[in-house]
Amino acid sequence: MNESRFKNYNILLNTITFNYQSILNYFDNRSTNASEESFNAKIKAFRSQFRGVRNIEYFLFRLTNIYA
Asked: Pfam families under this entry (predicted)?
């Protein structure tokens, strides 16, 4: 066998082993972390608009006003 196939298999196995509870949770409760991922994307988009802002308190204030 090619070693690269074993390497890919081990990466997949480690990913499933690390995340198996979340994977099973989806099938048990049909719950995902999609809302958290969406919120993280919104924060990243907001950060990209305000690049160079040095006042962290103001940044957090604006962020909570928009998304809270």
From this structure: DDE_Tnp_ISL3
CB burial class (10 A; 0-12, 13-18, 19+) of residue 44?
Answer: exposed
N-term to C-term CA, the chain = 53
Q: Are 54 and 65 in contact (CB under 8 A)?
A: no
49, 21 contact by CB (below 8 A): no
Q: Using an 8 Å Cβ cutoff, are 18 and 43 in contact?
A: no
Write out the two tokens for 44.
């990243």
Tens-digit pLDDT profile for residues 5-40: 677 888 889 999 998 888 888 888 877 888 888 888
pTM above 0.85, yes or no: no
**SS3 label, residue 32:** coil
